[in-house]
Write a structure and sequence with these properties.
alpha+beta; 5-stranded antiparallel β-sheet; about 30% helix; globular; binds 2-phenylethyl (2E)-3-(3,4-dihydroxyphenyl)prop-2-enoate; binds cobalt (II) ion
Length: about 170
Amino acid sequence: MAVLQILEFPDPRLRKIASGVTSFDSNLNHLIDDMFETMYEAQGIGLAATQVNVHKRLLILDVSENKDSPRVFINPTFDILDHELSEYDEGCLSVPGFYETVCRPRVIMVAAQDRDGAQFEFEAGGLLATCLQHEIDHLEGKLFVDYISTLKRNRIRSKLEKEQKNSA
Ligand code: QAP
Ligand code: CO
């Protein structure tokens, strides 16, 4: 297993649209294991393949308290079940150090495939619903900072650009 490099805003590679996963092989399983190691090491609750520069429709998350409920979603889609919005202070491993309030539909029906390609679907609410929508956005090249004001987004961009220059 390996810890992968996480792309940081405003890296243009975070804007790529991911393509569907078609082969459920050992390469895919290896990538999933590396993504979990990367997410847990960074103390994240969700990570999309896009964030580690792999432009495939795959995301992982673990929203449990004890970090003992790893979940994998391949080729995920969702339908909104409750259009009422819930507010969360969202962060992102690709936007380190910044959190902003984002509103998203409260309850969704998510459908995806597991590591073996088996289809599943279930109803999600709460943090799980928010996190799934956040991660599925990554697969479309979208970031939570796209939902906040241009002023705030530009401030975050320039702060992160400075940090990235200083650590390069
Ligand atoms: C997405 O984000 C999410 O800035 C997952 O310094 C987050 O795991 C969806 C993280 C909140 C809904 C609500 C961020 C870790 C982790 C940071 C993450 C940081 C260290 C973010
Ligand atoms: Co994110």
